[in-house]
Amino acid sequence: MNKSYFRIASLYLLLGVGMGMVMAASENFALRPVHAHVNLLGWVSLALFGLFYTVYPHAAANKLARVQFWGYNIALPVQMLALALFVTGHAAVAPLLGISSVIVVLGVLCFVVNVWRYAGSSQK
Q1: pLDDT > 70: what percent of the chain?
Q2: What was the pLDDT predicted at 108?
Q3: Cα distances (angstroms) measured from residue 34 to each of 2, 14, 62, 70, 103
Q4: Which candidate, 14, 4, 77, 73, places its Cα nearest to that of 43?
Q5: Which residues are within 8 A (CB) of 44 and not within 5 positions of it... i.e. 6 or more apart?
Q6: How far is CA 110 from CA 11, 18, 53, 94, 123, in A?
Q7: pLDDT band at 120, cuts 50/70/90?
Q8: Residue 80 pLDDT > 70
Q9: At what angle are helices 45-55 and 94-118 packed, to 10 degrees?
Q10: Domain range annotation of the chain
């Protein structure tokens, strides 16, 4: 699972950098919030999740970690697409944005529980 975190994170890095280049070249920064979220929730957070689970592999071997991985990685692209649509004037996607955001937050909550359970534990 750790490799998957890093692989997916690298795709978000590519997407975030690509978005930045397109926004700069076009001088249209309407998707700035999406760009920031792709970089932070996609690239940075996923890479840090992967790093934590590499250091604490026992934490990655439980159901909560699997729920976190799948929930977060299914909801995040939906959230980013819905956010892009929302900031470009498609207010009808607000419920989808809200639901996907809640699922992303629940994924973060799962991660926080795992950190509190396993960080600093002697089981690595």
Answers
A1: 97
A2: 98
A3: 25, 14, 31, 21, 17
A4: 14
A5: 9
A6: 23, 30, 13, 24, 19
A7: confident
A8: yes
A9: 20
A10: 2-118
Q: Tokens 């919030």 belong to which residue? A: 33
In angstroms, the CA 37 to CA 31 distance is: 10
Question: Which pTM does this prediction carry?
Answer: 0.92
Q: If you write DSSP's letter for every residue of 54-98 in order, what string do you get?
A: HH-HHHHTSHHHHHHHHHHHHHHHHHHHHHHHHHTT-GGGHHHHH
Burial class (CB in 10 A: 0-12, 13-18, 19+), 108: middle
- Would you say 101 and 83 are in contact if contact means Cβ atoms under 8 Å apart? no
Q: Flag whether pLDDT at 52 surpasses 90.
A: yes
Unique residue bearing structure tokens 């529980």: 113
Q: What is the pLDDT of residues 10-20, one digit of tens each?
A: 999 999 999 99
CB 42 within 8 A of CB 73: no
| CA distance between the termini of the chain | 15
Q: Report which of 56, 75, 62 is spatially closest to residue 120, judged by C-alpha positions.
A: 56
